[in-house]
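User: I'm writing a short report section on ligand binding and want a predicted complex to refer to. Could you take this sequence and magnesium ion and write out the structure as tokens? A short remark afterwards would be nice.
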Amino acid sequence: AESQDPPYLKGLNAPQRDAVLTTEGPVLVLAGAGTGKTAALTARLAHLLWTRKAYPSEILSVTFTNKAAREMRERVGRLVGDAVEGMPWLGTFHAIGAKMLRRHAELVGLQSNFTILDTDDQMRLLKQLIVANDLDEKRWPARQLAGLIDGWKNKGLVPSDLDAGESELYANGRGQSLYAQYQDRLRAVNACDFGDLLLHMLTILKTHRDVLQQYQQRFRYVMVDEYQDTNSVQYLWLRLLAQERKNLCCVGDDDQSIYSWRGARVENILKFEKDFPGAKVIRLEQNYRSTPHILAAASGVIANNSGRLGKTLWTEHQDGEKVKVLGIWDGPEEARRVGEEIEGLQRGGLSVDRTAILVRAQHQTREFEDRFIAIGMPYRIVGGFRFYERAEIRDALAYLRVVSQPADDLAFERIVNVPKRGLGDKALAKVHQLARAGQLPLTVAAARILDTDELTPQARRSLGNLVGDIARWRAMGDTLPHPELARIILDESGYTAMWQADRTAEAAGRLENLNELVRAMEEYESLTAFLEHVSLVMDNEAQAEEPKVTIMTIHAAKGLEFDTVFLAGWEEGLFPSQRALDEGGLASLEEERRLAYVAITRARRQAIILHAANRRIYGQWTSSLPSRFIAELPEAHTESESTMTGGASLWQANWSDRADPFADVGRGTGRGPGWQRAAGVDTRNPGGGFTSRTFTREQPRIVESRASAVSFGAKP
Ligand code: ATP
Ligand code: MG
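Assistant: Sure. The structure tokens for the complex follow:
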């Protein structure tokens, strides 16, 4: 019968086929990384089209990124020909939500040509509201309100759904009122924000039976990839749409839930069986992506999490190389070493296309970018901007350029009112006028205009302060080291404070990027030399065609795979992140561990984990400890190497004068041989010593009951 198989079934294993062929009724595919969940979902889509169970327009398929949607479209296209031309409902939640909402906009008081606001517009609108409500924006920052509103929308809550407690989160209980005013305001300008794309649709489906029925009829089949990362509003929306026909197929992996900070609820996996009784649960256990060493390493780490649904993974692949743990001296050596390794792979005939560097935090890309530019290694940054192109870095650079180069008008324009100092367009127009008339740089014109009565007293004061500051910073440049100067400029200008007051999820990352910028400056002789380097970097747009190394965050790497993966910066405070450690909760630490699992399982052939003994922060060398996740790697599947001579004493010194990083999670002292091994000190004993299994036994299984309450068939 195999030979009669349609092309999309070829090579699929039995449970994958089951997932493809069980088209009717609810199906949940719960399986580990690389077991072919996405492949099965793609084949299922092909099957529905091939067998004409549904027209393309009758299938709703949700992917996590636009890129994933494109890939699925292409693959299905290859499998079944051009039947996929019109797959209008294949896309991300946002893309699908927007498309639906355009058809029914009037039901929530919008017109079909509504605008989708970007964050800048959103912030401006919120600020106006805060002022109109006589609130002090310094005390109650717009970004905090934006974050709260976003959170409510992720939960599927409209203003009238908020309870007093939620409302209390902003301006002494005025959260609800401001949320309501914001929604009114959006409606008045025929706009909505990202959160509204689904929230409005949910409201429509809940309140207009006819619309709901129309979609329930239309969507014969509903499919969702990366199901573990759906948030509440997405879940509620899906449930409504699939409730009638119940042909819903979700695929996911509880161990890869890494977006709880954006409202994702891994419990949605558990709810599935409750909301869709009789759901068929399919487990895929054969991993097609990675070698046994990589799988064992990933499994060893994730085994330290509690409350997992639990699953087995096996592979037919050859052992391949062990996971390499590289202890290096510092950040620059990390970048140098990775560069050398990749050049080695290239000499071995491998395309750099299949190589990735995964980092925990955006700011970590900088060191690699600088190094790769130096050695001419083509690279791409996925899911984010190249370091020097990020908004906060451009702002900071603009400050530095104004100080170092008085005639840099573009830089001046960029920072003149960032952070906001009440310098409106009118005042700026006057400065421009004077500059044009006198053929002066803007900074000079700005200084001269202070001697006239062209400006309002407020604008004059603000501009006077800025002009004075710039002059002072220039003078400081003669005596201060330039990184120090940069820090002073960012602090005194209020730029750092602007992001510190920001409560959105990205703000912390932006502050880290600013730190990283100052750190980068230390490697250059002068401010001028540094700025010159930056302009060269910005100019280094490599040829689009040529193969490139990918640099990205672990979050952005979800669902992807590479032959060789470098996992950089596995150090306490970097990964797990300082934030996760400060919050101290088990939940945040476990989310970091899931990230580690996602990171390792991106590798097909080889995973190389790096940890530096030292990182430079504001010119201060700070010694760092290898990540606890390194100690959790099963010894039999890893191979450690250290370029540090005399590392042992250094590490021991670190441990003796440091607080115990394990104290918060109650897992022993962390001074066992596992750590020294990670640091490249050979203290291995045949018994295995400090293995992850020891951890697990000692650790209270907090949510065990939850795991066993769910019956996903026999657990081997
Ligand atoms: P993740 O959890 O990381 O999203 P996944 O479960 O979605 O992983 P896929 O990306 O679908 O896994 O598949 C992983 C790799 O295995 C891909 O290269 C895919 O082409 C391959 N693969 C999937 N199923 C099979 C199969 N039956 N035979 C051979 N290769 C397969
Ligand atoms: Mg996948």
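A remark for your report: The two ends are 30 Å apart (CA to CA). The pocket of adenosine-5'-triphosphate (ligand 1) is lined by residues 11-13, 16, 31, 33-39, 253, 256, 288-289, 559, 561, 601 (CB under 6 Å).
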